[in-house]
């Protein structure tokens, strides 16, 4: 019995070490948030990359694959495959960039607009729940710290 207690104490100490590692915590929270988002997307046929691509295009109205890749911090080949798949589902359409005929622009198709309108209240409620949980001051502080972290990791070789 004493041996079991000692082993449990060791395991608990190791958990504490991980929980005190801020990058580990960020990773865990990100995964939990992804799992929550996936649950909210159930029945739509969308994965997280597809939803984020649609949300980004909805926000900017039109974007090139290269701009989507940079903005979403995702490999351009994956963005291209995702956009192509969304195009096959009639959720996005492709237009030729008037300033560069070789570049395709992604825009929401009517079905994509409709799907995003259906999902909007679900994700608005999700955001509101997080904001209520943390409070306005913490949210403001998080935005400040996220900006610092993004700058740090963008400038780290």
From TrEMBL:
One of its GO terms (biological process) is response to stress. It comes from Epibacterium ulvae. SMART domains: HTH_MARR. This is DNA-binding transcriptional regulator, MarR family. Residues 19-151 form the HTH marR-type domain. Pfam families: MarR. PANTHER family: MARR FAMILY REGULATORY PROTEIN (PTHR33164:SF99), TRANSCRIPTIONAL REGULATOR, MARR FAMILY (PTHR33164). The keyword DNA-binding applies. Gene3D superfamilies: Winged helix-like DNA-binding domain superfamily/Winged helix DNA-binding domain. Keywords: DNA-binding. Coiled coil: none annotated. InterPro entries: HTH_MarR-typ, MarR/SlyA-like, WH-like_DNA-bd_sf, WH_DNA-bd_sf. It comes from the Bacteria. One of its GO terms (molecular function) is DNA binding.
